[in-house]
What does this fold into?
Amino acid sequence: MSVTDAAIEAIKQMIVDGELRPGDRLPREPDLAERLGLSRNSLREAVRALSLIHVLDVKQGDGTYVTSLEPALLMDAMSFVVDFHRDDTVLQFLEARRILEPAATAMAATNMSQEDIGGLARLIDSLGDKPTVEQLVANDLEFHRRIAAGSGNQVLSSLVESVSGRTQRARTWRGITQEAAVERTLAEHRAIQQALAAGQPDVARAWATVHIAGVEQWIRQTLVES
It folds into this structure.
């Protein structure tokens, strides 16, 4: 279990035990981190993850509160759970990504203009050193969309975009809960971009496969642990 997962479980247990009830405000960040034996960074990541599934509500300038936990509020979170556990749907989409995107990336290495390939580097650089997970996932979607379009095959590009969009929430959750996921994603994006710039379709295909397989492997492990 990662440090962030441990932090998530600690906060969830406080709610289950009744120590935190719907509408309650969480203790101050430094106090709660010290009490739970966590770093403030791990606590922030846990809060972000729990706010994503509507367990917590972060109010800027006010504090972090437990939501009402009403079923209607949690429906979006339930659809996230369904993605993970009902017929392993998200995993099937990732398997399809692993087949389609490396092929599109290899084609882009010979068909994409150097100007557009340079635009990929600028897209990566636009994130800065410490992007949020939400910024990273949005950037990731655009990165792969441009490469698919650069393949020169409109049918393949449409297929990639459709399949890729269905894995967005899984990629967001991975970025929040898996340590070094942000750094790994950026490094792999740069490796793909450099292979495209060098006109190396086989290398570009290999890096795209490694990149997508990393998310798929994490999902598989998550399903096993669940």
